[in-house]
Amino acid sequence: MLSKNMQDALNKQVLMEAQSSQAYLAMASWADIQPGLKGVTKFFYRHSEEERMHMLKLISYINERGGFAIIPALAQPTLTFVSLKQAFEELFKHEVKVSESINGLVDIALTEKDYATHNFLQWYVNEQIEEERLARECNDKLELIGEDKSGLYLFDRDIITMGIEGGGKGKH
């Protein structure tokens, strides 16, 4: 059985995962109307869906442990970006924030000696390592590319498979 404190904290994480999904969905929609960014568009749509799955996994866990998962109202995400670089910088900042939140949940679980939740959260800890690595890698590549159109073309082509190989994105 979840404590009220743990249930509330997990429900805050449900909100964060839902907001992540919405933010990445908005990034996908923005990328979709930019010329030549079909790979980036697919990447963001896939990322949005994965965040939704993270949310659903939390909802199921809360309810299975005798709690009540709250389906949150969502704030409007950022809809437009000055550049692709800015969109990916936002992606990275957001993933760091999610990692910090997951670490806070682990801390609560350990403090409360809720080892079942601690065990459950280890999947999220590992997932966030991958999420941050992928976001950092994308930002590093965009930094290298700068304004080079041929580099952007290759980035757009390659991003479709970034994170999929090696057990990362898409292997949940």
Summarize the structure.
The chain has a single domain (4-158), classed as Ferritin, core subunit, four-helix bundle (Ferritin), CATH 1.20.1260.10. 73% of the residues lie in helices and 0% in strands.
Descriptive report:
The protein has a single domain (4-158), classed as Ferritin, core subunit, four-helix bundle (Ferritin, Up-down Bundle). The chain is elongated and about 55 Å long. The protein starts with a helix and ends in a 14-residue tail after the last helix. It is mainly alpha-helical. The protein is built from five helices and no strands. It has helices at residues 4-32, 38-64, 84-111, 115-145, 149-158.
Largest sheet, strands/sense/barrel: none
Q: How would the global form be characterised?
A: elongated
The CATH topology assignment is: Ferritin
CATH superfamily: Ferritin, core subunit, four-helix bundle
List the helices and strands and how they pair.
Layout: H1 4-32, H2 38-64, H3 84-111, H4 115-145, H5 149-158
Search tags:
172 residues; mainly alpha; Ferritin; 5 helices; 73% helix; disordered C terminus
